[in-house]
Fold:
Amino acid sequence: MSERATTVEGVRRTNLGAVLRLVHHGGPRSRAVITAETGLNRSTVSDLVSRLTDAGLVCEHDPDPTRRVGRPSPIVAASDKVIAVGVNPEIDAIEIGAVSLGGTVRVRERIAVSSPGVAEVVGIVARTVERWRSDALRGCRLVGAGVAVPGLVRAEDGVVRLAPHLGWQDADIAGPLRQALALPVAVGNDASYGTRAERLFGAAREHGDVVYLNGGASGIGGGLVLHGQLIGGAGGYAGEWGQTAASMADAADRRVEGGVLENEVNRQRLLDVAGLDAADDDALQSALAAATDPAVAVEVRRQRRILAATLGNAANVLNPSMIVLGGFLGILRDADRDAFDDEVRRRAFDVIAERLELSSAALGADRLLIGAADAAFERLLADPLG
Amino acid sequence: MSERATTVEGVRRTNLGAVLRLVHHGGPRSRAVITAETGLNRSTVSDLVSRLTDAGLVCEHDPDPTRRVGRPSPIVAASDKVIAVGVNPEIDAIEIGAVSLGGTVRVRERIAVSSPGVAEVVGIVARTVERWRSDALRGCRLVGAGVAVPGLVRAEDGVVRLAPHLGWQDADIAGPLRQALALPVAVGNDASYGTRAERLFGAAREHGDVVYLNGGASGIGGGLVLHGQLIGGAGGYAGEWGQTAASMADAADRRVEGGVLENEVNRQRLLDVAGLDAADDDALQSALAAATDPAVAVEVRRQRRILAATLGNAANVLNPSMIVLGGFLGILRDADRDAFDDEVRRRAFDVIAERLELSSAALGADRLLIGAADAAFERLLADPLG
DNA sequence: CACATTCGGTGCAGTCGGCAACAAATGGGT
DNA sequence: ACCCATTTGTTGCCGACTGCACCGAATGTG
Structure:
């Protein structure tokens, strides 16, 4: 978003990228609106749009019949024939999706595999994409692939340093996948890509300072957007909330001596107290809501207290305008949204709480695929005609 | 640093700023080095430098006698005649400094006043600067002033929302001071400006992802640099570590029920246990080192534990490459640096701890003046010839 | 049907950085 | 003392890009 254009040609790249980004992340809009939002000249926008059209990246169609005087301005939309592949390997399956520019999922498959290795993932993805290419994606242009990995990914080269649930360690999936698909490949942490998706297309849309926390079966991960930028930190490992020491006002709230946040705020504990063996988030939510055993309410309240303290800390340190909770953390909040939000705000400075919103994640299961695909689009947005 | 240049003229602004920033933050260097570091063409750099010289912002002087073949390249240095004023109102005094481009403090005064109001600060600063103008700063060009306020400052307009130690609330100091000095004025939180100074000229030089925590008599504040940018958050209030709930593995470490970090990691508690009434940081450090009472060591260890847990959390969430500790937090660390650093690293993921450095603050009392002045320079760097 | 309004298209001008050729300044070798 | 290689500043030209002014197109209004 904010590369500095030091050269005159760079200005063109920047501006082409800005226009394409606008219709990709913000949806279709008229040329006139683009002119107003970019602050560029009409003639400049005209030129930029026609170049993007020539390159097949955007489509123009007739304007909406508006009731206003004046010449109607054609609507510019991102081409849905430009596609990036999103991949999310998990412990029991691989999820693959084809996402078009604009952020809609065109095709999507979940392929059951138990704890797949790198070669297995690459093979399955390559076969699936090959099949799509001559079928659902006929006539489309594939521009890249993104892989959302449940683990620690080194930002500089995309090497998976550690993915405990997959059993990967110092694994390079970018190289093999790039070879197999003949496409550029981005690799990133799943929570980071979830953050990206929620910020661009979900609950944190339009927010420049976002804290995102996701609770899954394997723990708590998250991501940050500050100054409108996704924050990776020095190595790209930022967002590991699950490993932070939890703040508990009452020592009786602790369950694991020397434990960390994800030991205390924990999905399995909720399943246990609800008497469930395994369940998806919807089932868990219903079970918790329907439970009559007071122990359930006690455990939910305990986890809510601890989570609220963590979020209060995050608010004081980062001053976000939006906190988004995904997975079972959203369930904890939804048990009584207003009370939860108030408790978080109460722990933050007034001036910070004033402008703090909280939300449960808006995107469903597509979140990671959309985020991963968007990371793959990033190269295109940086230099649309390159 | 990273404004996007959407126009051709904007490219020139960006590049002029980049060159000026280089010699301002990085020190004097030859044209040849500037060419290499900016990636710009020789002829472009030549033009940019001569424009900056014409504007009196940089000076060129004869090259160092290097032992290499080839035409020597003249050294470009930021002009020390370009000055910004840094101001730091405290509870017992106002500190004022004149800082030249390049970051050196030219003049500096500490004026004792008890808990000054806005009008008092403005008056004193105006008189002092007026005196300097016809004396120490004769022939200099003043380009702005920055005020480091111990309190919450709204980023969007510089209004001081709350500065408890000064008794200010919703106070506008930018307006009156701008009028009195006839200069643009920047207002910010003191810890933010300290962060800025340590990052540019101090311990975190060259680090793109920095966590800075400062411990003073009034509490614990801090700042963040991520992706090379100073992070303010949605309202500019980010960095309030002091108000976060502390994480304590052992409940016996708690001293204040429902208290926050700055209640537990606390300068006054150190003074008390050391039997001191009041002392500056140097005296406190000596007293703690010389103490024989085992209660002193116990309290130091307790505060170190809590601080290390907080820093470990910060490392996991933000993945910084450098953590800088100022004020009495530096003293706590210095009591046994290696042990402290190891404890912080132990609490972070291996991959994060691998590349995590810690340091005590490198700049002394000048820190806030340098940071505040640098904030005032920002306008100049964004558009050097504007 | 004339007019106001809004917006796209075209040609021109201004600005900027890249490039290539040349000049200048230094060290090394004979 | 002299020539050459190397590095770097300087100059003039070129290409690229955006902004602007003007014109034409498309729509609603009276």
